[in-house]
Amino acid sequence: MEQSIHFDSVSTYNVFGNHPTYHPLISVLDLSKAKPNQIKHMHIGIYAISLKGIKVGDLRYGKGYYDLGEGTLVFFSPGQVLHIEGDEEWHQPQGLILVFHPDLIRGTTLARHFHEYTFFSYKVNEGLHLSKEEQKIIKDCFANIEKETKRVIDKHSKRVIVANLELLLTYCVRFYDRQFITRETVNLGILERFESLLNSYLTSDKPQTIGLPTVKYFADELNLSANYFGDLLKKETGKTPLEYIQLKLIDTAKEKLFDDGKTISEIAYELGFTYPSHFTRLFKAQVGYTPNEYRSLN
Length: 298
Prior knowledge:
By secondary structure, the protein is α+β, with helices and mostly antiparallel strands. The chain is built from twelve helices and ten strands. Helix content is about 45%, strand content about 15%.
């Protein structure tokens, strides 16, 4: 089989997985039934939820290599490109995968809040590690969806399938909440690194040369996706990364305002603001006073 493949439809993935197409917009596949292949590059044009079986090669997404063990749930969204690194021998895929086209949920209530399932834009190394009990629940959800796809399509089919898909995603949210708690030690290490990076950023010349600190900058430095970084910080601190950065920015500004030798404009530029008026608006929104008023009061 070719070294590169584009998965732009459910039927395309079914061909790859040696699986019949029961429903044009969604499918559940057992990858152990797929033909051995030498695919190295996968271009994803649909949504996919993969429950990994045994390891087959190292998966590379972006700059990182990830050994995904058994019981890891990984999410993919349209536009991603994956690379499988390893020897040139043919290999046999393993595990279960659910694939669905964006058209499946279009016009449904699920579509209106689908953006809340931020794990579809997580990096591969941010996959969901399931317990045996959690694996069974996910497999049951997969099985219920698969049963419905094999029924004759009627006016209830879409509603039932989408309802089961939403149930599956709700379980994923619950299990990610559990994972954020059980990996608290790892998470604290990430938060400490973020705090250190943020302090270093604000005490360097980066605000003047790069600009205001951004969520993307720190997510990249921590080798995390912006969404995973945001969800992690929200769970641990109750604040979004942007809120956290702005609070640190304001704290730094307060310290600088005690230096009477600097104008408000000079302080704004030192912090990375292009326009002092933007600094003044943010400061007043956070503190309740303008920078000049705060300086006078203190």
